[in-house]
Structure formats: structure tokens, C-alpha cells
Amino acid sequence: MVMESLESVVLTALKTVPRRQAKANSQDQVQERTVRMRRQGEPDRRFLVAYAIDPNDSEAVIFRIRPATSRDLGPARTPMLSTQQAADQLNVSRPYVVKLVEDGVFQGVERTQAGHRRIPAAEVARVQQAMQVSRRTALKRVDTLTSDLRQQELDEARTASKRRWVKTA
């Protein structure tokens, strides 16, 4: 069963009207397609779209749309990002994102027919959060190290200054 958008079915029907006018008078030429549609914020549903040339007007097409099933088709597909979009969101270069993909950092990466990588937006958000946590940890570590080094330098300076000013009887 091939799923198509309603728009593509309608365009296909309208494109085939001139070819079918040559075969006019054949009312049994009803084409039926299955499409997925959804209202905003609701899950996808499957519909059957049947269309045929109007027997009274050969330039018109009659459509009939009815639910194929009363069940929802489940959640809509997760949004996918290109490697460039992911790089922009992560504030890194695109080649670095490609390296992360090849290293397996991102889960659920798909390839298009043209070979382009598509990364789930949720995975990009997860990696972004992990990068922020590691940045904060590194910054705290650097801050701790610099404070310790600063204190050590002050102690050494005090010790050195005490030696210089020792009273000689």
C-alpha cells in the first residue's frame, strides 16, 4: 500500500484528465489511492481517495474521500535536521557534525536517497545538552586549578618575601 499526500493525488488526477478525455464515456475508470492526513497537533490518519472523470462534464473530476480506518496511525515522524542545520544549532562546523555521526554519537541517523544524512532533532538536543554539561564541568575544573595555582603562587611569594627581610642582628 503506497501512502501519498492528498495534494499529490489531486495533482495526479488533474494531470490525467486530458488523457482520459480520449477514453471518455468510461465511467468505470475510478482510481483509488490511500493518503495520510492530519490536523495540526493530532496524529496521522489514513484516508481512501477515489476519483473519476465527471460523466456530465469531461473537464471535471469527482473526488470521494473517506476514512480507511478509524484508528490513528500513531505519532507523526520526528523532525529531522540536515548536518548543516545540526551544526548551526550546536554552534560547531558541519564537518565536525559529520565526524560525530560517523563516530556514532547521534542515534537514529538516516540517509536520504541522495545520500544526505538526516539527524533526529531530539538527538541534536541531547548532544547539545551533553556538550553544555561537559563545558560547564571543564570550566569549573579550570577555575579550581587556577585558584589553586594562584594560592600556591601567593604562598611562595610570601615565603620568599619573609626570607628577604629577615633581621640580621
Describe the model.
The protein has 169 residues and is α+β, with helices and mostly antiparallel strands. It has 2 domains: 30-75; 80-161, Multidrug-efflux Transporter Regulator, Chain: A, Domain 2. Helix content is 46%, strand content 20%. It has 4 helices and 7 strands, in the order E-H-E-E-E-E-H-H-E-E-H. The protein has helices at residues 6-21, 83-90, 94-102, 121-164, and strands at 3-4, 31-37, 45-53, 61-67, 80-82, 110-111, 117-120. The strands form 2 sheets. A 4-stranded mixed sheet has the order 1-2-3-4, covered by helices on one side. A 3-stranded antiparallel sheet has the order 5-7-6. Strand 1, helix 1 and strand 2 (31-37) form a beta-alpha-beta unit. The longest helix has 44 residues, at 121-164.
Q: Treating each run of at least 4 consecutive H or I residues as one helix, how many helices?
A: 4
Helix content: 40-55%
From the alpha carbons, calculate the radius of gyration and give it in angstroms.
33 Å
Encode the helix/strand succession as letters. Answer: EHEEEEHHEEH
